[in-house]
Amino acid sequence: MIKIRQILRMHTQGYSKLKIAAQTGVARNTLKKYIKSFSASGLSFEEISELSDKDLEDLFVNPEPKPLDEKLQILFERFPSIDKELKKKGVTRYLLWEQYRSEHPDGFGVSQFKHYYAQWKAQVNPVMRMEHKAGDKLYVDFAGDKLSIVDPQSGEVTAVEVFVCILGASQLTYVEAVMTQQKEDFIAACENALHFYGGVPAAIVPDNLKSAVIRSNKFEPTLNETFADFAEHYSTSILPARAYRPRDKALVENAVRIIYSRIYVKVRRNPYHNLTDLNQAIRQALQEHNAAMLRGRNYSRQQQFDEVEKAALMPLPVLRYELKKQCFATVAKNGHVGLGADKHYYSVPYRYIGKKVKLLYSRHTVEIYYNYERIAVHRRLKSPYQYTTEKEHLASTHRFVSEWTPERFTSWAESIHEDVKLYILKVLDRKQHPEQAYKSCMGILGFAKKAGTERLIKACQRALGYGAYNYKTIQKILERELDLGLTPDETDQLKMPFHDNIRGEGYYQ
User: Fold this and answer.
1) pTM as predicted
2) Which residues have a Cβ under 8 Å from the Cβ of 214 and sit 6 or more positions away?
3) Could you give the CA distance from residue 442 to residue 435 in angstroms, rounded to a whole number?
4) Which of 256, 335, 445, 503 would you label with 393, given CA atoms 20 to 30 Å apart?
5) In this structure, are residues 463 and 477 in contact, taking their beta carbons and an 8 Å threshold?
6) Which DSSP category does 500 fall into?
7) CA gyration radius for the chain?
8) Average of pLDDT values for 292-308?
9) What is the Cα–Cα distance from 273 to 154, expressed in whole angstroms?
């Protein structure tokens, strides 16, 4: 305003435009505009001098716009809905012009239509130049200023980070307070945002924070592996903004500035003792912000989202993402690999014995990879020094042994004869742990093939009468019968007590 006063004073004193421009540093075209406005006002320099800076600004910088004629008024009233339609995929200005001309045959041509739309767009939102398609991008960032929570016992104040994201087309905003910018909190906030929107955009545009990008690069940045896995789970892409290029994420930068006045001011009125209470207050203020009318438009962010962008988002997956951690280990000779966090062991296919594998584990599952191929997946168990084994992972001999159970042996014995089953139960009962008797049971039942089923039944019946329950007892009985050349029927009439020559450990009760 000082320069305008100086220009008008020099003009009334008779200085040339060239000299005024040289002394004031104002462009000649701008100078001519001020002088023309001064002449058109009909005011003297003395009257101009008495005006306040605000009145002077209204007179020379922001003059009262001319009223629009009826045809132009109709077109300008149509621009908010045109702007909303342009956010839909496949919609162009030419198509909307054709629709406009079908309703108003005497309306403007396509060139004037585009010119006036650009003029209206510049007045409504002079900063934003990027056109955002519905469902295309979600811009995410952390606010520079932090909020805080207060410990109710000690009164200690803890600063917390504020996560902000915004959809490109509708500008629907999501805000959440988290403890840190670490990947656990960052990914959880991103996931909460997707569930807040009720859908997934085609791409997420983060800043170059370490939780999203390990190494920034102009052409091919290196993404954080966990964040990339999160994007894979939600079937979206990660497009990191270029380092030191705030225009790449101007929308979210502007959103951060807006929430300082619309959310921070309201939230900071009260103290909060935990994140839940703080986020509840943020959510209430956020709802008011999204429901407020956009400048120069007759709709809000929420309305624009519901009408234009909600249907364009991809559906959410059935299950939420589980954050995974990783570690490396070598497969032991028993075909198992240990997860150090729980000291629990999980099986892998036996051909990977001795190989170094990668374990990706979440709250509920453990996945094991070798050369980027998943070779095993298990439900996570936290019982230390225990084994989780899949039968298919074991070699054939190991698999057979792993299937040994008391029920297996009793069922096998029952299929031969009830007396054989009774004898096997006696053998299992004599051991402190059933597994100690498994080999004895295998040997006894194996005699069905070696000596015949009938001989085994008779041997078990005789051994039950002697009260001796072990493999060696059956072995000695069968060997004696075979040595004597007796048939199974002849053994029924044989009265053969145990003599000292067959005595051994475990032969008697």
Assistant:
1) 0.51
2) 222, 223, 224, 225
3) 11
4) 445
5) yes
6) G
7) 42
8) 83
9) 11
